[in-house]
Amino acid sequence: MGSDVLFQVMRYDPRRDVEPYWAEYPVAVDDGDTVLMGLMRIREDIDGSLAFRASCRSGICGSDGMVINGRSRLACKTQVAAVVSDRGRVVLEPLRNLRYVKDLVVDQTPFWQKFRRVEPYLMPEEPRSAAERPMVLPQAEFDRLSKASDCIFCEICYSECPINGVDRGFLGPQALIKAFRFEFDPRDDGAAARYAPLSNVEGAWRCRTTFNCTDSCPKGIPITEGIQRLKRKLVGELLSGMQPAYRTPMPVESPEETSS
Ligand code: F3S
Ligand code: FES
Questions:
Q1: Which of 95, 157, 213 to mutate to test the pocket of ligand 1 (most atoms within 8 A of CB)?
Q2: CA 75 – CA 187 distance, rounded (Å)
Q3: Which terminus of the chain is more solvent-facing, meaning fewer CB atoms within 10 Å of its CB: N or C?
Q4: The pTM is what?
Q5: What angle do CA 244, 250, 255 make, to 5 degrees?
Q6: Is there an atom of ligand 1 within 6 Å of 163 CB?
């Protein structure tokens, strides 16, 4: 049995609009319909100029993150019935902490730049024998790393993190949980390469353990726990003398300074 729901959407086209504004669309919604289905109905039947990203429609591609009734979520995994207000409204805004491009689409560039900064891949040195370095992880540890690998790059954690809102340089939860995934992998030897971006003032220490990222992750990744373990690892490396103390982003030394 369908019902009419009012979709209130923040719209903005930089070629035409001085600032964002609200547009309202009545949408006929059936039981089980998702917010993404409602948006598609608007674009197909009411206003073809509405911009939003979506692809898989099943929580896999991570394209359709947006703020739905005040909280960042995937539109394809959010049923209208679960979020519609008592007044019959669903309010949609673009993700936070990223520049608006058009309507519900944001500029992902800083997100991907920060992701690349933590060198998110295995960096093994020369192969070692099993005796030198056992490759078999305890099941619980494997499960943690495997969970961190479930990230779909939806930017929802980035949007919900209050530190990303006040410090544009902060790496953010997604880059940090990816660093965790590789730093704790026994096949990896990339700690020295990742130490500077992770330990400088825009790295892991900037996280204030608010748990917003963990609470909002659509894949249920325990992001905050991973970041806390990363911090403990960084302290261990510092105290053991494995790594130097950095206080500024990515220190650069001239040849004169290093030779004096
Ligand atoms: Fe941000 Fe998550 Fe830390 S929301 S403050 S990265 S716990
Ligand atoms: Fe792919 Fe929602 S459309 S995650």
A1: 213
A2: 37
A3: N
A4: 0.89
A5: 80
A6: yes
What top-level class would CATH report for the domain 109-258?
A: mainly alpha
Q: Which structure tokens are listed for 137?
A: 């992880």
Domain ranges of the chain: 3-106, 109-258
The finding on whether 56 has its CB within 6 A of some atom of ligand 2 is yes
Cα 145 to its chain centre, rounded Å, is: 17
CATH number given to 3-106:
3.10.20.30
Any ligand 2 atom below 6 A from CB of 85: no
Mean pLDDT split into 10-residue runs, the chain, 260 residues: 89 95 97 97 97 98 98 98 95 97 97 96 79 75 90 98 96 98 90 92 95 98 97 89 60 36
Can you tell me the distance from the alpha carbon of 61 to that of 40, in angstroms, rounded to the nearest whole number?
Answer: 17
Q: What is the Cα 61 distance to its own chain's centre?
A: 13
Give the span between the Cα atoms of 254 and 84, in whole angstroms: 58
